[in-house]
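Sample intake — Ig-like domain-containing protein
Collected from: Amphiprion percula
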Amino acid sequence: MDRKNKLMIFSLLLAGICSPVFSGEWKAHVVKSLDALVSSCVVVPCSFTHPGGNLPNSRLRGIWHRHDKRDENIYNDDYAKILDNFKGRTQMLGHLGQNNCTLEIVDIKDHDNGPFCFRIELVRTEDNEPTKDKFSFVEECVALNMLPDVPAPTLNHPPTAIEGQPYTVTCSIIHTCPSHWPKLSWTLKTGEIIEYHKDIRSGNWETQSILAFVPEEKDDHSEITCTAEFFGGKTSSKAFSLYVKRTENYNHIIIPTAVAIGTALIFGLLCVFMAKKYKNRIRELQNREGSVWNRLSKMSRRGRS
């Protein structure tokens, strides 16, 4: 086989290997809308697919840009190509080699509403220059809904606590920044605290703090507060009044009753004893009087005779 034929076969093999990557359809999946707390942070879930299988990070370059201006980058591997007001505030949390293009924005400004779109470029490994294969997913962009104030936590608890029995309160908050969890704290310093983080989909997360303690009588009508502190320093709180029901206690009835019964029993026994003694005394007196009368009767008979 001559050199020309070998070169042709090699070219065909190379085209067969590369064609699924470069000629296939690329798709991105980006959350369409997310709440973002001003001065805090937001994480935008993003993934993409392509027909050529996984590619190494070194072959991929991820870019986030404004929807209507592709040259205005809010994130780029090249720091110099990022808009000045976004420099130091964005980073790619996902690994492009794993088809993950998730973006984080911190120190949210009230004008960071977007929409923002993801763009991917294939690069040559030897000089890191982009090829002609560039894909901007302008149909899959995220718009941010600016929240100027912190939402209040949600409290779930039984309406009444019972003295001496375990009592549980759950404090929860919804947020969109799982890279920096909100911190939940309680004013009550006793008891056990368990914290959970739950993905509730579409870029929304729930952080829960469960407080378990055993209430005492002194806790009745006390106020328990849960405070949520977000990344960036903003806080919000929710409180409720604790009502503690005393455990049923019948000592105030049993003790006086027992004393009364004991007193009556002693008094009754004493009365029986005194009555018996009195009856015996009367019997003795009657016997004595009978013997005296008999003697007198005998003496009276003797005198007559």
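Post-analysis note: The two ends are 184 Å apart (CA to CA).
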